[in-house]
Amino acid sequence: GAGVSQSPSNKVTEKGKDVELRCDPISGHTALYWYRQSLGQGLEFLIYFQGNSAPDKSGLPSDRFSAERTGGSVSTLTIQRTQQEDSAVYLCASSPRGLSYEQYFGPGTRLTVT
Amino acid sequence: QQQVKQSPQSLIVQKGGISIINCAYENTAFDYFPWYQQFPGKGPALLIAIRPDVSEKKEGRFTISFNKSAKQFSLHIMDSQPGDSATYFCAAKTETGFQKLVFGTGTRLLVSP
């Protein structure tokens, strides 16, 4: 079946602009995660949605970052007033209910802030 | 603070050799320990996982060894192949509250032909 998809695959933006990154999880997966991966670095947790519960936003690095998940499916990560340090690959993952160790990752969106 | 420490940062192994990657955790509130494999330009993919009540799990050439008392676990890749060249992440799943994965910093493995 279809895996996790993300769009766009690449995004170049100017410093100060807002960007929106989209994630389409695997159908039926109740949990959705956003991570940030800087060049050669590990995975930095950003935010976690589980069903209709309030999201875990504990990983968001600043109030310029926000995310929403509509209808328990598609999610959008928004970065306002982008800074050069926001340049990274943003990864989305989803998992079935009760199996949160088994996360299925999308290919990521490479964001470059110039 | 929940942390998972991973070593080495990078590893070069000859084809046919054994690759060993180590991880250690500090917080005991973890109940699952998966390993993920990431190829360049791709998202990570689940490779193998182990529960803390099991000391070893083997799937093909990949084996996880788990030492609960030492709070350490490791990935062994037997008969390493050039196709195994990738970045490997260990992780630990929190067992309460928001159940999420805490990832190690990754090990870049290169298997030379």
Helix content of chain B: under 10%
Structural class by sheet pairing and helices of chain A: mainly beta
- Structure classification of chain B: mainly beta
What's the quaternary structure here?
heterodimer
Question: Mind describing the biggest β-sheet of chain B?
Answer: 6 strands, mixed
Alpha-carbon Rg of chain B, integer: 14 Å
Tally of individual helices of chain A = 0
The sequence of SSEs of chain A as H and E is EEEEEEEEEE
> Given the C-alpha coordinates, what overall shape of chain B results?
globular
Largest interface: A-B, 22 and 23 residues
Strand content of chain A: over 45%
Strand element count of chain A: 10
Strand composition percent of chain B: over 45%
The stretches of 5 or more residues of chain B where confidence is low (pLDDT under 50) are none
Helix content of chain A: under 10%
Mean pLDDT of chain A: 92
Query: What Rg of chain A is obtained from the alpha carbons, in whole angstroms?
Result: 13 Å
Largest sheet of chain A, in brief, is: 6 strands, mixed
Describe it.
The complex is a heterodimer of chains A (114) and B (113). Chain A is built from no helices and ten strands. Chain A has strands at residues 5-7, 10-13, 19-24, 31-37, 44-50, 65-69, 75-79, 88-95, 104-105, 109-113. In chain A, the strands form two sheets. In chain A, strands 2, 4, 5, 8, 9 and 10 form a six-stranded mixed beta sheet that branches. In chain A, strands 1-3-7-6 form a four-stranded antiparallel beta sheet, with no helix packed on it. Chain A is globular. The mean pLDDT of chain A is 92. Chain B has no helices and eleven strands. In chain B, strands 2, 4, 5, 9, 10 and 11 form a six-stranded mixed beta sheet that branches. Chain B is globular, with a radius of gyration of 14 Å. The mean pLDDT of chain B is 92. Chain A binds chain B through residues 4, 33, 40-43, 45, 48, 50, 56, 58, 91, 93, 100-108, and chain B through 6, 32, 34, 41-46, 49, 89, 91, 93, 98-106, 108.
